[in-house]
From TrEMBL:
Organism of provenance: Nitrospira tepida
Pfam family, one: PilZ
Superkingdom as given in the UniProt entry: Bacteria
GO molecular function annotation: cyclic-di-GMP binding
Domain annotation PilZ: ranges: 55-155
Protein name per the record: PilZ domain-containing protein
Amino acid sequence: MPQRRCPRCRTTKLRLAPFRSRVDRLLEVLALYPVRCQLCGHRFRAWLGRYRKSQRRNYERVPVRCPAWFRLEREPEAQQPEHGTIANLSIRGCLIRTGRRLPLGTPVSLEFQPSPSTFPITIDCAIVRSHARAGLGLRFVNLLRSEERRIRRLVDLHLYNAPL
């Protein structure tokens, strides 16, 4: 069987997506499952031939180790940035290791440096979605297209081609 590719960006870095509608459930009978590209985010259906359970996340997170700084969205100029380390990253979110606990739903601005020889990547708005041991799970809400491209390149370097 040929390796599946994203129809938009032609990468093979795909992952099963959660069912969103009755149509998804009906097409499951024909072995057509929702799939999401891990680099461009395109969602489409593909014939997989046998049942596979969908994962909790839409995007695979890759392990990274980047210094990061974040601030609460309200009055960002008035406060000192908090320091942390990004432990894993996807095109839509990350886990930042920090001692600071923030309530779920708290908006923050985030900046992290993928390597010492590059400029920092800036995320204008991220939302605290989960608490992990000594860290915060963030979902990116607002970022510039150029920054999104840089994150995609970083994820592409670390993400393996996993067959569905």
